[in-house]
Amino acid sequence: MERKGSRRENECEEKTSNSESSELDKDYKTSLITLNVGGYLYITQKQTLTKYPDSFLEGIINGRIMCPFDADGHYFIDRDGLLFRHILNFLRNGELLLPEGFRENQLLAQEAEFFQLKVLSEAVKSRWEKEQLASRETTFLEITDSHDRSQGLRIFCNAPEFIAKIKSRIVLVSKSRLDGFPEEFSVSSNIIQFKYFIKSENGTRLVLKEDNTFVCTLETLKFEAIMTALKCGFRLLTSLDCSSGSLVHSDAL
């Protein structure tokens, strides 16, 4: 009698356990929500979408806001499907985390307002304002002799991305002309210092070592800067002390 009773108890426990497991699986599956946002499918948990009370997504999930369904039975939201990635990441992380170089602040702010996420909207606007202030600040790039910083080229601009392009272009040209001499110059955030400046006969200082095919002078660097600026949409308005009749011989551009 004891063995039969024990067996029945075990069977009951197994059934109960299986029933509870089945219920948990069912609850877990129903907690997953698929959204179709502008043609992009996103799968997330119900608790993520309802994290912020009174938001558009919380209203949809809890039935306060009517939302159409697509052909597959998923909630359909007619908004920017690509930008919704950042909306969802904000709901998951609780903070605004955007990829480097993100330039769609205004669009993201509009999306945040549509989804009634006031905290996100304010975070995006704050980031946007900081970027605008930073863009007005003058950024510079200094190209100098490591032994005599008075000799060299200084480029000032209020467009950080332009300074970055100038910097990468000069480094690229320098590396391509310094085969076998990887330590000819050092690069920091705003300064490129050449270690071996060579004086030419007319007193012009050369910033790269002379070889059989190419000599890069200070004038060459000016030319590179001018060409990069013109390609980026800048216009040349005036130049100072252009006594030699060439832009690259100017003291200031």
Describe the overall structure.
By secondary structure, the chain is an alpha/beta fold. It folds into two domains: 23-134, Potassium Channel Kv1.1, Chain A, CATH 3.30.710.10; 140-232, no CATH class. Helices cover 43% and strands 15% of the residues. The chain has helices at 2-31, 46-49, 56-61, 84-93, 105-114, 118-136, 160-176, 218-231, and strands spanning 32-37, 40-45, 75-77, 139-145, 152-157, 185-187, 191-194, 198-199, 205-206. A four-stranded mixed beta sheet has the order 5-4-7-6, covered by helices on one side. The chain has a three-stranded mixed beta sheet with strand order 2-1-3. Mean pLDDT is 75; it is low at 24-29, 178-182 and 203-215.
SSE topology:
Layout lengths: L1 H30 E6 L2 E6 H4 L6 H6 L13 E3 L6 H10 L11 H10 L3 H19 L2 E7 L6 E6 L2 H17 L8 E3 L3 E4 L3 E2 L5 E2 L11 H14 L22
Parallel strand pairs: 1-3, 4-7
Antiparallel strand pairs: 1-2, 4-5, 6-7, 8-9
